[in-house]
Amino acid sequence: MHPRSRTVASLHVAAVVLTVLACISCTMRPLQGVLVPSSEAVEATSQIPILIGTTRARSSGDPGEMFSREPSTEMAFAQVTVSIPPDGLRKVGEIQWPLSPPGDPRKEFVTASAANLDRAEFNAAITQAVKATHRNKTMVFVHGFNNRFDDAVYRYAQFVHDGRLPVIPILFSWPSQGAGNLGSYDHDRKVAGQSGAALTELLVAVNANPAIKEITFVCHSMGCLVTLDALRSRASRSGSVSKLKNVALVAPDIGFDEFISAAEALGPRRPRIGLFLSQDDVALKISTSLAGGTSRLGAIDPKEEPYRSALAQQKILVFDLTHLGGDDSHSRAFDEVSSVMGMVERRLAQGQQLGEDASRTASR
Fold first, then answer.
1. What residues does 54 pair with on adjacent strands?
2. Which SUPFAM superfamilies match (predicted)?
3. CB 35 within 8 A of CB 56
4. What is the pTM of this model?
C-alpha cells in the first residue's frame, strides 16, 4: 500500500474510533441539566465542593451547563458541590451519572449546589475552605480533550472522593468542545495550546492566598499541553508561584521530545514532576497516528531507550499503570485511584528523592 494510502486509512480508522468513543461517552450522562442543584438531601452521601476557574463563556441556553464550549476573553469563577452516594451503593472509580436530572442522591452523583463567583469571592472561598477543613494544600486539576464542563466537574469530584485526597480541590476548565471527532480534536489541541496564560493567571492568584501553603498540579491528556505552557511561564517569572511543589502528568497527550525540552527549560528549581502512563493507552495510540507517529509521553515504555535515560536525567518520577487493567486505559488513573494513590505513597515512603533513578516504574 502506498504510504499516503496507509496514512489516509489510519486517519479513517482513528475517526471511526473517536466517533465510537464519543457515542459511548454520550450514553453515560444526560446531555442537559446536570448542574441544576437538587433540593433533596441524603445524610449518607459525601459532599465534595469544587472551586473553579474557567475560560469558558457562561452558558445562555442550559442552566444546568453553567459554562459552554465557547471561549471567553476573561477568567470566570464558580463553585459546585457534588453529592456522591455511599460507597456501598456505587462502584468506586466510576461516575454514576443521573439518569434524569437532577438525579437520585442515594445512588447517583447529583449537584448539591452551584454558584457563580467573582474573583474576590473565589479567593474568599479558598480561605473559607482552608478554615473549614483545616487543610492548607490545594490541588489544581486541568482536564483533557472531549470534556464538557460538567464532565470535568464530576470527574474531579470522583477523583478527590475516591482518592480520599486531603486537599482543597480547584478545577481549571479550558473551552474543550466536548466532542470526540477529528475536527474537535484539532480544535481542542489549538485551544489547549492557547490556554496556558490563563492557567498561569489562576496559579498566581492561588499562590497569593496566604491560607494556602502548597499547590499541586494534576493534568490529564491534552490538558498537559496547557500545564506545560503554564510551567514555562512560571519559569520565566521566578518566585511568583513559589508554593507550586508537585506536578502530575496523567496520560499526557504530548510528544516525548516536546516534554523533555520543556523539562530542561524549567531549570533546577522546578517542582517535582510525576508521570503516570499506560503502555496500552488506546486513545494515545490514536493520537500518535494523528501526530504522524510521534510518540506520546503517556504511552511510552519507560524501560526502553531513549526514554529511560532521558527521564532519569530529568529526574522524573515514573508510575507505570499498565498492570492495573480496566476497560478505559486512558482514564485508568481516575478509575483505579485508590491503587494509584497507594503506589505514590509507597514510592514516597521509600524516601526516593529526585536525584535517584526515577525511571523505575512503581508497578511492583
1. 76, 173
2. alpha/beta-Hydrolases
3. no
4. 0.88
